[in-house]
Design a protein that fits this description.
- By secondary structure, the protein is of the alpha+beta class.
- The protein folds into 3 domains: 139 residues, no CATH class; 66 residues, wza like domain (wza like fold), CATH 3.30.1950.10; 69 residues, 2-Layer Sandwich (wza like fold).
- The termini are far apart.
Length: 345
């Protein structure tokens, strides 16, 4: 992946963590990041590489020219642009004309209709010229197709499927996973050339779903929380924490970024975050830029963890004692009621 390759420069000399235990991370957080590993941060951001489309991204395709390969046979309700020179002065022929349900085009009151359905463009041109020769001396006819009814439109929004392809319906499937937008454009135009004459397309991404980062919050003994956030290429640690509306009462201020290693490397980068410096002092030194695949880890508050663990241990006994107290109280109430009945009350 290109995004992983971008991180390679920042991972030079990265630390190998064989057993990712919390105490190892704690030791790492106390150490400054070596200069050779200095990652981008709030005031030193970098542009990410050209976006590579992956499932389940959503792309928008606009095909600006949809003309079928010749020889195309005209069909009912196709639209042709017909231009003729040498016509009657008060009845020019230079408009779009639709082929009606009978397969003919009506050129006007003075010229009548000509049947063109089932013909190629050249054949329709010649049929119209022969028809006009019955009325005009030397007509010069030009015919071109501007809209077809039999050709399904290509323009639209497409989801990149799990197999990395987009489904163009009658035009088949095109594999786009791992390609940049210019590469998709070239591949799409080459594919559509099997069906269309010199197609011209534009491609854009409308939903960046495949490149994400994760915010992992320890739950202080009551279960961790993971939030998956699409990346735009401009986020920092502060932006990430704002996605979860700040730190909860279960969290400490011990935060770091766990950056995965590129494929083939057995190392990872741990970037400690000084939360107080970022929020209270406006420092940008540890407000790192988030990269695709990053894990923003928020450690739990140890006191809250201890409280929750103690509550888990003591809770069953408290419930048992409460049930016992309720049982004793109920028995005593029944005994008091029985004594009252025996005394005539």
């Amino acid at each position: 992946m290109v995004f992983a390759a971008v991180s390679l420069g920042w991972l030079t000399g990265c630390q190998v963590l064989t057993t990712p235990q919390l105490d190892q991370y704690d030791a790492t957080l106390d150490q400054p990041v070596p200069p050779s590993m200095s990652p981008p941060r709030e005031l030193e951001k970098v542009s990410l590489p050209a976006y590579r489309v992956e499932p389940p991204d959503v792309i928008q395709i606009e095909v600006l020219k949809v003309v079928p390969l010749p020889p195309y046979r005209l069909e009912v309700y196709d639209v042709m642009q017909i231009d003729v020179t040498g016509t009657l002065l008060d009845q020019p022929i230079n408009n779009p004309y639709i082929i009606d349900a009978e397969g003919t085009v009506n050129l006007g009151p003075a010229y009548g209709s000509v049947r063109v359905a089932g013909m190629s463009i050249d054949e329709a041109n010649e049929a119209i010229r022969r028809h006009l020769l019955q009325i005009l001396k030397r007509p010069v006819v030009s015919v071109r197709l501007i809209q077809t009814t039999g050709m399904q439109p290509v323009s639209g929004i497409y989801l990149v499927g799990p197999d990395g392809t987009i489904n163009l319906r009658q035009y088949g499937q095109v594999h786009v996973a791992g390609l940049s937008l210019p590469e998709i454009k070239v591949k799409l135009q080459r594919h559509l050339s099997q069906y269309l004459d010199s197609p011209e397309a534009s491609v854009d991404v409308v939903a960046y779903n495949s490149k994400v980062y994760y915010i992992v919050t320890e739950g202080a003994g009551v279960g961790d929380n993971v939030v998956r956030v699409p990346i735009t290429g401009n986020e920092t640690v502060l932006d990430a924490i704002s996605q979860i509306r700040g730190l909860s009462q279960l969290s400490s201020q011990k935060i770091w970024i766990a950056r995965p290693a590129p494929h083939g490397f057995h190392c990872e980068q741990i970037l400690p975050v000084d939360w107080n410096a970022i929020t209270e002092g406006g420092s940008a030194s540890t407000n790192y830029q988030i990269l695709p695949g990053d894990r923003v880890f928020i450690a739990e508050d140890k006191m809250m963890t201890l409280t929750n663990v103690v509550a888990k241990i003591v809770g069953p006994f408290e419930r048992a004692m409460g049930f016992s107290s309720l049982s004793v109280s109920t028995i005593r109430n029944f005994q008091s009621l029985g004594q009252g009945l025996d005394n005539g009350f």
